[in-house]
Amino acid sequence: MVTLQGENIYLRALEPDDLEFVYQMENNEVVWEVSNTITPYSRFLIRQYLENAHQDIFEAKQLRLAICKNDSFEAIGLIDLFDFDPVNKRAGVGIVIKETANRNIGFGGQALKLLINYAFTRLQLHQLYANINTENVPSIALFTNFGFVCTGIKKDWNKRVNKYTDEAMYQLIHQS
């Protein structure tokens, strides 16, 4: 599993034992803001999702991986390829680290680097993109650090409590 192994973390497929972790992540209202979700998920629905997580990206059109520290099997975050388009060879990228203590110390950067490498070498994608709220400075810094470029702003795109916020489209095109 060298492709998905980093210096301090590794990426792995979701397991049935990840039910509580995914349940907590999907029902965290802070995460809802970055995933454009407003509905809670039941353990039943997440169990069904995990039972179908064996589908490959060509079937499911998405790939969700657990981010784990090298010395543990326990997930600290999730990283996704979504809206997988095999014809145009592109996919969206999403990442979330659960605990504040595990943020801004390099785990997200290592996970993103591994996923970019996997997407371009194993999946042969031409481009990756990320939709990021323009107020989310840490995410913008993370993605731009890996070469993602802002290609447009969607004005008043997402409603947050009592205001609308802009969302930026960032793209990374593989130069082969």
Helices and strands in order, then pairings?
Layout: E1 9-13, H1 19-26, H2 29-35, H3 43-51, H4 57-60, E2 63-69, E3 75-85, E4 90-97, H5 107-122, E5 127-133, H6 137-145, E6 149-160, E7 163-173
Parallel strand pairs: 4-5
Antiparallel strand pairs: 1-2, 2-3, 3-4, 5-7, 6-7
Helix pairs in contact: 1-3
Question: If you had to describe this structure to a student in words, what would you say it looks like?
Answer:
It is a single chain. This protein has 176 residues and is α+β, with helices and mostly antiparallel strands. The protein is 30% helix and 35% strand. A 7-stranded mixed beta sheet has the order 1-2-3-4-5-7-6, with helices on both faces. Strand 4, helix 5 and strand 5 (127-133) form a beta-alpha-beta unit. The longest helix has 16 residues, at 107-122. The two termini are 24 Å apart. GO terms for molecular function: acyltransferase activity, transferring groups other than amino-acyl groups. Residues 9-167 form the N-acetyltransferase domain. It holds the Pfam family Acetyltransf_3.
Strand percentage: 25-35%
Total domain count = 1
Euclidean distance between termini CA atoms: 24 Å
> Given this structure, which CATH class is correct?
Alpha Beta
Report the order of strands and helices. Answer: EHHHHEEEHEHEE
Q: Radius of gyration over alpha carbons? A: 16 Å
Strand order of the largest sheet: 1-2-3-4-5-7-6
Sheet of most strands: 7 strands, mixed
CATH superfamily: Gcn5-related N-acetyltransferase (GNAT)
Number of helices: 6
